[in-house]
Design a protein that fits this description.
- By secondary structure, the chain is mainly beta.
- It is built from 4 helices and 13 strands.
- The protein folds into 2 domains: 48 residues, no CATH class; 242 residues, Outer membrane phospholipase (ompla), Chain C (Beta Barrel), CATH 2.40.230.10.
- Strands 2-3-4-5-6-7-8-9-10-11-12-13 form a 12-stranded antiparallel beta barrel.
- A hairpin with a 2-residue loop joins strand 9 and strand 10.
- The chain starts with a helix and ends with a strand.
- About 2% of the residues have low confidence.
Length: 296
């Protein structure tokens, strides 16, 4: 016990004296003659990482909805209307200024997962996978009403499920239902800024006929408007999308504020409408979520 206590005191003293030294202060490169080797070691020490946050990265341990989730197969069990949700979203710039207009070419990947954390075995109810390719043209001129950038891109969104209705299994086992959801889109996006208020307008069109959810555009519409307002350290967002022909859409509001840990934010979200997840794209629900974000 005395040895354990002494070790804990030693560790505490190290932390208090900031004795845990960054790599760049203990790894020496001065004696190396090869400049490329120096550069490689420098990138490694500085943890150079080409990926950066794209959409908010968050973990929401408590997400409550007024809607009862549907079980799609006999093995699903009964889902609860409280679950956990998380999102991982990253992008990487792989080319710049190809057309001489200062544009940047990106690849991105986002994943949202809905985790039935509070039932036995804690299954994942749904996961949505979203790879993208896009190019952003900077504008940044006051002459165009605060227009800052133009973006054009391709997006594939899927829940990774197989289409069982196209096999004999659907006839043999009628209780099995098709869980496959996917959509391919071309989109255009503009960013406007007025002081600490940012407007993000995005429109899209479907580019492939997907037989497993041919009516998805009726519910997710053809565009959305997102507003972000920064007030000191607070960030408020509001997003709305609407299909005027089908009178369906959705509204989402979020709030975030820095916590006591570096890079961690308190994060709260309210969603109401259609398309909160792919599996429930045609079900209207209202959902309240709270947790932590690691990027905004």
């Amino acid at each position: 016990m005395k040895k354990i206590a002494a070790f804990l005191v030693f560790v505490a003293n190290l932390a208090a004296n900031e004795a845990v030294t960054p790599l760049e202060k203990v790894i020496s490169v001065e004696t190396l003659k090869d400049e490329k080797v120096k550069e490689s070691i420098g990138d490694w020490m500085n943890e150079k990482f080409g990926l950066t946050p794209y959409r908010p990265n968050y973990l929401l341990p408590f997400s409550y909805t007024t809607h009862n989730y549907k079980e799609w197969t006999p093995t699903d069990g009964e889902y609860k209307n409280i679950e956990a949700e998380f999102q991982v979203s990253l992008k990487m710039a792989f080319k710049r200024n190809l057309l001489g207009m200062g544009e940047i070419y990106y690849g991105a990947y986002s994943q949202r997962s809905f985790w039935q954390l509070y039932i036995e075995s804690s299954p994942f109810r749904e996961s949505n996978y979203n790879p993208e390719l896009f190019v952003t043209f900077p504008v940044g001129s006051k002459e165009y009403y605060g227009l800052k950038s133009l973006t054009f891109g391709y997006s594939h969104l899927s829940n990774g499920q197989g289409n069982i209705t196209l096999t004999d299994n659907a006839k043999k086992y009628p209780e099995m239902q098709n869980r496959s959801r996917s959509i391919n889109k071309l989109y255009a996006q503009t960013i406007f800024q007025h002081k600490s208020l940012i407007f993000d307008l995005k429109v899209w069109t479907r580019i492939a006929n997907l037989d497993d959810n041919p009516d998805i555009m009726d519910y997710i519409g053809y565009g959305r408007l997102k507003m972000m307002y920064f007030y000191k350290k607070h960030l408020f967002t509001a997003m709305g999308r609407f299909n005027p022909f089908k009178r369906k859409g959705a509204f989402e509001a979020t709030y975030s504020y820095p916590g006591h840990l570096d890079g961690v934010y308190f994060f709260a979200k309210i969603f109401t409408g259609y398309g909160e997840s792919l599996i429930d794209y045609n079900t209207k629900l209202t959902k309240y979520s709270v947790g932590f974000a690691f990027s905004r």
